[in-house]
Amino acid sequence: MAWKQNELTEMLNISSPIFQAPMAGGITTPELISETSNCGGLGNLGAGYMSSEEIREAIKQIRRLTDKPFGVNLFIPNEREDHVDKKELTAMIDYLLQYGKELGVEIPVSTQVKNYKSLYENQIEEILREKVPVVSFTFGIPDKAVMTELRKQGSIMIGTATNVKEAVELEESGVDIIVAQGSEAGGHRGTFHKEETGLIGSIALIPQVADAVRTPVVAAGGIMDARGITAAMALGAKGVQLGTAFLTCKESGAAEIYKQTLLNSTEEQTTFTKAFSGKLARGISNRFIQEMADQTTKPFPLQNDLTTSIRRKAAMLNQKDFMSLWAGQGVRMVKETTVKQLMKELILGK
Amino acid sequence: MAWKQNELTEMLNISSPIFQAPMAGGITTPELISETSNCGGLGNLGAGYMSSEEIREAIKQIRRLTDKPFGVNLFIPNEREDHVDKKELTAMIDYLLQYGKELGVEIPVSTQVKNYKSLYENQIEEILREKVPVVSFTFGIPDKAVMTELRKQGSIMIGTATNVKEAVELEESGVDIIVAQGSEAGGHRGTFHKEETGLIGSIALIPQVADAVRTPVVAAGGIMDARGITAAMALGAKGVQLGTAFLTCKESGAAEIYKQTLLNSTEEQTTFTKAFSGKLARGISNRFIQEMADQTTKPFPLQNDLTTSIRRKAAMLNQKDFMSLWAGQGVRMVKETTVKQLMKELILGK
Questions:
Q1: Considering only CB atoms, which chain A residues are within 8 Å of B234?
Q2: How far apart are CA B150 and CA B143, in angstroms?
Q3: Considering the entire predicted model, what is its pTM?
């Protein structure tokens, strides 16, 4: 069976209510995004860390490959990020130096904090200039002014909630769609209130969010195949968002060693960690996560900046012990596949 | 719609594949169990902490109220429980004394460890004597000898798994049914390997377990209504087990203050704790959980024995800050209801 058209597919002008998750860090290539959209779903660019130039170039490539709708995801900047204890920051840098030495790479020793607020403002300008059809946000609620501008030029807006309170706040802000991210999801928790309030499993989260808001809900977290889609829809979702299932597609930008690790991992091997970015995220446990468990990480995205060179070099060296191997709890169900094949199975069932 | 008959309902000779979870500690009254079974589901006695005399009396009452099948749940004793550091035990007792003083109750100051192995052996003897139709186990796999005896007299055996590995081990042991307990579930984790391997959300756990075993899978964790049942079935379960949804039924033995707390709680208020029993369990966060967070608890069930008098007295005083308010992440969906009304909604949908 194919999924029925509903208010979500009509709003987005897509044929199947299936989103490829906007995974950041080079995973969501123009090929991954455009192929998902060409197959009737919604491809999404994980642009949270990207400069406006990089976003412009990615959009150009996506548009060359598809004339279907696609989305771009941005991170709402954290207001408190500027208040960093310089001494503690130096201690973290000192701690990370051992790994830099082991991998033969520099750790950024500057204690200058990047200006993520201005990065975000530039990203928004670019999104407006490009008239992106769908814009999604993680880690918070966009300003009224930003939403007004996006609305004016016809962008559909998506917010990310990890509990009912966040979903209600997003609805009140006026977003068009709410992604309800269950605790099974790989990668970062989208939580923007206390992080311990945002760890609800999908089977409990979806119906409770659906009961509380009128906005269409898209379920994310632990969904890997048509069974998961049927379940999410029964629980009250109007669509689904899959990340891990797309990671092992030929078109994904995940490093080969990352894909191979996913193909050989089990559901019990994922864990929550703040080691890579300072924000809670789920990935395959490895040496870096284990050794960093006792360290007090710096706030997101500062910790992310501090570990970027380590992760990049590790990827170059095929050293998975120092890579962020984000993965959801459904990882045992990943397959070596293509977007076309995956979308066919998701839409028609196995 | 009513749920279709399947291999699970046929095996158990019940009409609907819905289990009332065997919650321990006086929750599963003979009325709760018998009414569930009379409505076509499977009522289950949470007998883990009960003496053989108490079990015998409960079974007598259940049989007076129903001629339908019912189950009894036992805890597999932990082999390592005898090795307790007396000094650390004394430190925990000393710590708990402040609460005993506040509530006006004694803390058991004896460092004599109860013999749970012999309690279990007596429970098994009683179960065999009573020819209980369904016997379920938590925290491990029963001995071959025990299983042979139970099989001989026709008892259906159920094991509890929290990841694929545990499910496969249970299947190999020869159990007839596997309960797959998702991380959303209230109360104790059934995990019998490292506890961090047993925290998989239902939407990911159910299909991965169903793919790995031929034994019928019963989904537990976060299921609160017909939507949850449809979802669990789509994911590969043959039946479901609900705990939290039954807690607020008139027939449940939960204290009134506990019921009222559940009726006024949200999904983000549950948390994992070892404070009450020494084993990870999910419940509504309260002062005891928060203050105990930094303490190293004693192994299960010793910690449970140490906090029993506190919890009992707190319940008498309607002092919910010291009660174990076990609850799953679907708690926002609980209703003040009866077993008959709940079962009707579960079977027919809302």
A1: 227, 230-231, 234
A2: 11
A3: 0.97
